[in-house]
Backbone:
């Protein structure tokens, strides 16, 4: 006899979506399936059926095509323009509703007619990292920061609705998705990254994948408390950044490369000019830094107006930067310009898709990037991020220095069984570089690292995890150390 399926509640919380309260329930069955269920308060299945009738009647009366799909002001705009029509229809089908219920129903109707419908609810959940629409035949999936992939109780009514959403998203940023151009890379006006595909390229149906822009930037406090990194490794990276060493962060998709880049950027001194270059803005630095964020631009449908990563990297060198942050190295010319910047005295920080130190060196020295191994020593440190796809945990996997021959020499590495970083080799070339340019002895470096660890412990113990407040601590540290000469 088959064992009866058991369901365990993992978490529950509420969301406020345009003044509508939504209950979220996360469960896991004994069969291994995990679910994300939303319930809109005071909206029963029967009410939803009637609301669908109102929606159809509303759409037949008004033209909503001119309102931007991802414009956060669209809700209020539609309310103002069509308030009378909506209230008339609500009173027609719900004649005895009070003002509070009328507002609730109005918000529900508006949300279903503009933007991304119930997907807007998922966009409002700060616990989610990814939203995946695979086809109208399946429920929407989400990737939860704590629980990984979850199947929702949200379904799109048909393939046309998915395609409609893709078209609106593209239109808002000057792009198009058609049968002739069935692939779309874009972003919402909120910064969330969007990829869309059309059937039959995606054989089960039209798809939309949304990688959410982090509402709250990650900080070193978050990383240490989540065991993504330990105090010793964080202090060592801080030492490198303080002394203007160039760092490359590598890892697989979703491993936390950009998050790590954001975290270590708080270590920058306040009196230096920082230029960041990204395809889509993801980095958020402390507001008191001298920071100029820049973003690439794809060509318009006529093929004009493109501003590439290379354009911005070359241009950044004319802006007198002290530090250059580059979202991701993909091509040979970009890498060449970055290594040229390192050789001319700029500190460079970038990300790369590679799973370990050895693979990082291979990717840098082989097509399509293909930089000569002889230039690699200009890069000082490689930090490798890893995500365990089974548990969803993100960890710093390796940290390595670059030898004079362009090899990666691992200094610390994650012991998977113990879930902790352990020493593999004692730093050699980093210490030689620091001694050459700062005069610090190994004993002085060791003392400096101890001091940094104590500062980091104080930050974590006091739960300081706001990016500006964390940055302020490091600024005070530099002021005491250098301005006051302590």
Residues:
């Amino acid at each position: 006899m088959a064992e009866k399926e058991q369901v365990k509640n993992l978490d529950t919380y509420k969301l406020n979506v345009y003044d509508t309260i939504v209950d979220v329930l996360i469960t896991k069955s004994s069969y291994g399936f995990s679910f994300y269920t939303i319930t809109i308060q005071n909206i029963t299945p029967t009410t939803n059926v009637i609301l669908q009738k109102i929606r159809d009647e509303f759409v037949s009366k008004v033209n909503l095509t001119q309102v931007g799909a991802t414009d956060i002001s669209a809700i209020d705009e539609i309310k103002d323009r069509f308030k009378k029509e909506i209230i008339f229809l609500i009173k027609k089908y719900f004649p005895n509703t009070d003002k509070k219920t009328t507002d609730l129903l109005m918000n529900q109707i508006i949300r279903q007619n503009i933007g991304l419908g119930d997907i807007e609810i998922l966009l409002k959940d700060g616990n989610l990292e990814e939203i995946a629409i695979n086809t109208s035949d399946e429920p929407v999936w989400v990737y939860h920061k704590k629980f990984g992939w979850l199947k929702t109780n949200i379904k799109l009514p048909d393939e046309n609705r998915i395609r409609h959403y893709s078209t609106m998203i593209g239109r808002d940023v000057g792009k198009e998705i058609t049968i002739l151009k069935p692939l779309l890379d874009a972003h919402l006006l909120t910064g969330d990254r969007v990829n869309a595909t059309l059937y039959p390229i995606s054989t089960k149906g039209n798809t939309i994948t949304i990688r959410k822009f982090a509402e709250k930037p990650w900080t070193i406090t978050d990383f240490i408390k989540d065991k993504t990194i330990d105090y010793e490794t964080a202090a060592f990276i801080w030492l490198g950044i303080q002394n203007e060493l160039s760092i490359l962060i590598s890892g697989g998709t979703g491993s936390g490369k950009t998050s790590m880049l954001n975290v270590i950027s708080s270590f920058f001194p306040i009196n230096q000019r920082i230029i960041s270059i990204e395809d889509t803005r993801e980095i958020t630095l402390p507001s008191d830094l001298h920071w100029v964020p820049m973003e690439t631009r794809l060509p318009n449908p006529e093929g004009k107006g493109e501003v590439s990563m290379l354009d911005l990297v070359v241009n950044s060198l004319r802006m007198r930067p002290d530090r250059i942050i580059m979202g991701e190295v993909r091509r040979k010319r970009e890498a060449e310009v970055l290594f040229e910047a390192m050789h001319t005295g700029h500190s460079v920080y970038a990300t790369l898709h590679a799973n370990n130190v050895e693979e990082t060196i291979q990717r840098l020295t082989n097509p399509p990037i293909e930089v000569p191994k002889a230039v690699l020593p200009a890069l000082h440190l490689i930090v490798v991020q890893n995500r365990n796809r089974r548990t969803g945990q993100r960890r710093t996997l390796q940290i390595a220095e670059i030898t004079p021959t362009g090899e990666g020499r691992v200094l610390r590495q994650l012991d998977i069984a113990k879930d902790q970083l352990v020493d593999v080799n004692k730093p050699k070339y980093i210490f030689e570089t620091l001694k050459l340019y700062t005069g610090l002895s190994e004993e002085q470096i060791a003392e400096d690292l101890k001091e940094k660890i104590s500062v980091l412990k104080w930050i974590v113990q006091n739960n300081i995890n706001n990016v500006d407040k964390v940055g302020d601590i490091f600024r005070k540290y530099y002021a005491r150390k250098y301005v006051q000469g302590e």
Summary: Residues 162 and 206 are 6 Å apart (CA to CA). The chain has a mean pLDDT of 88.
